[in-house]
Design brief:
Structural class: alpha/beta
Radius of gyration: 20 Å
CATH architecture: 3-Layer(bba) Sandwich
Shape: elongated
Pfam family, one: RraA-like
Strand content: 25-35%
GO molecular function, one term: metal ion binding
Oligomer: single chain
Cofactor: Mg(2+); a divalent metal cation
Helix content: 25-40%
Binding site for substrate: 100-103, 122-123
CATH superfamily: Ribonuclease E inhibitor RraA/RraA-like
Protein name: Putative 4-hydroxy-4-methyl-2-oxoglutarate aldolase
Number of strands: 12
């Protein structure tokens, strides 16, 4: 029996590309500034960074798998275009690893920007040594199965956030955010403006000129007497 186009075992078309200039621009913005300008609701929580320090920026190629099975992650790596981020909904299950060193090497050779895994990885030392961007929920020595089912380029749930294929993923030492593909210009401009404002604030703080009157004013409104 063919599983083509069956819910739960299917591959959808690749999403629209994101201009290289847009990816470069977001690479210069820290995740808190991006998060603040999406009302702090578009961030991924609960994943940890397994590489050293390289920033993760790229288009989401999404994968939904059965916990403990990585067949469709292998297929996604083969489909990925340079700069893509493989984003995997593994059901937050961490008893079996979904990716390891060999898959990391395949992905790196193909130009994949990194992994976001709501599940477990293994070969932790290899990810650290390669500084290959990888955010995951946990790690274990136990390996996966490769039988399916699974889906590629469908909406996925990762760390409390729904991510669509084609969203822009940004990850750094503070965590991960996903920017919807149709809001990139808006969010970028707002985040860049915040970065400029905060730079001015930092300069004022160092000069002892940062205005702090808002604290007592707010407390007074709450009926607190200093």
């Amino acid at each position: 029996m063919s599983h083509a186009n069956h819910l739960g075992f299917r591959i959808l078309p690749m999403p629209a590309s994101i201009p290289a200039g847009m990816i470069d621009a977001f690479g210069a913005i820290v995740t808190p500034h991006i998060s603040d300008n999406m009302h702090r609701l578009c961030g991924v929580t609960g994943l940890r960074r397994y590489h050293r320090e390289k920033k993760l920026v790229g288009r989401a190629l999404t994968v939904k798998v059965r916990p403990g099975d990585n067949l469709m992650i292998h297929k996604a790596i083969d489909m990925a275009e340079p700069g893509d981020v493989i984003v995997v909904d593994g059901g937050a299950e961490v008893t079996q690893a979904l990716v390891g060193e060999l898959m990391q090497m395949h992905a790196q050779v193909r130009g994949v920007a990194g992994f976001v895994i709501d599940g477990a990885i293994r070969d932790v030392a290899a990810f650290h040594a390669a500084d290959f961007p990888c955010f995951a929920r946990g790690n274990t020595h136990r390996g996966p199965f490769k039988e399916g089912p699974g889906e590629i380029n469908v909406p996925v749930a990762v760390g409390g956030l729904v991510i669509e294929a084609g969203d822009l993923i940004v990850g750094d030492e503070d965590g991960l955010v996903a920017v919807p593909a149709d809001r990139l210009d808006e969010v970028l401009q707002a985040a860049q403006a915040q970065a400029r404002r905060e730079q001015q604030r930092k300069e004022a703080i160092l000069a002892g000129q940062d205005k702090r009157g808002w604290i007592d004013a707010f407390l007074k409104e709450k009926g607190v007497i200093a």
